[in-house]
Amino acid sequence: MTHDEIIKALFDETLVGNAPAVLELTNRGIADGMTPGAILFDALIPALEEVGARFERGDFFVPEMLISGKAMSGALNVLRPLLAETGAETVGTFLMGTVKGDVHDIGKNLVNIMLEGAGFEVIDLGVQVPPEKFVAAIIEHKPDIVGMSAFLTTTMPMFKVNIHEITKAGLRDQVIIMVGGAPVTQEYADVVGADGFAADASTAVRIAKDLITKKRATVSA
Fold it and tell me: Which of 2, 42, 169, 206 has an alpha carbon within 20 to 30 A of 138's alpha carbon?
């Protein structure tokens, strides 16, 4: 197979969630001299973006998203150490969690995969994360960014509660806070006092990088 054929096959097999084929093609590509970055950015991430687009259109449902994400995770296990070897610096540390009262994690997991692929170290607190757990994790891990996800309108108010507790603990100035989830808007993010909002995984990565760059520039100024 040519490199272009491997890229196309990786895209197609990730799209349908064929984990064994994705793993085999990833290993074949690496053995054939392809860079881990090319595999990630030319095949895997575009495939997951297409999965997200199909989900939004109603062509894909939660199970399809799950198996595609799982297929990509297997490839990432191969690529992660190789990306580190090539000197791909860690962009920053991203602490992620779905807020208390909410058990949805598809979007969060998709963002995590994209962030890892973009060079972030991701610490995932899981779902139903109470404010005190966010606070304790900030103290322990000292992340650059804290990401909070909510899928339900009824759990969105937890953003404000979490930010209040982080502020009360004296940690607000130490972290960038990003929020997201299906019902969340930029206007709502502004109201609760978040630093950033993204409607999809690829935008989340871009905004996270921009916010870190701005913060570091301010600190060094």
Answer: 206
Q: Any idea which residue has 């690496």 for tokens?
A: 30
Strands of 27-160 (E only): list them.
93-98, 121-124, 145-149
pTM: 0.73
What pLDDT does 87 receive?
63
Average pLDDT of adjacent 10-residue blocks, the chain of 221 residues: 97 96 97 92 86 83 82 87 73 96 86 80 96 98 97 96 98 97 95 94 88 89 67
Q: At what angle do helices 158-168 and 131-141 cross, to 10 degrees?
A: 50
DSSP 99: B
- Which residue's entry shows tokens 């890892």? 116
Q: Which of 47, 53, 52 is nearest to 16 (CA)?
A: 47
CATH number at 200 reads 3.40.50.280
Residue range(s) defining the domain that contains residue 181: 93-220
102, two tokens: 């909410």
Chain mean position to CA 110 = 5
Distance, in Å, from the CA atom of 179 to the CA atom of 147, rounded to the nearest integer, reads: 6
Both tokens of 121, joined, read 């170290």
Residue recorded with tokens 């491997």: 6
Which amino acid, 181?
G
- Given a contact cutoff of 8 angstroms between Cβ atoms, the answer to whether 150 and 158 are in contact is yes
- Assess contact for 148 and 162: CB atoms under 8 A: yes
Angle, CA 140 vertex, CA 217 and CA 165 arms, to 5°: 80
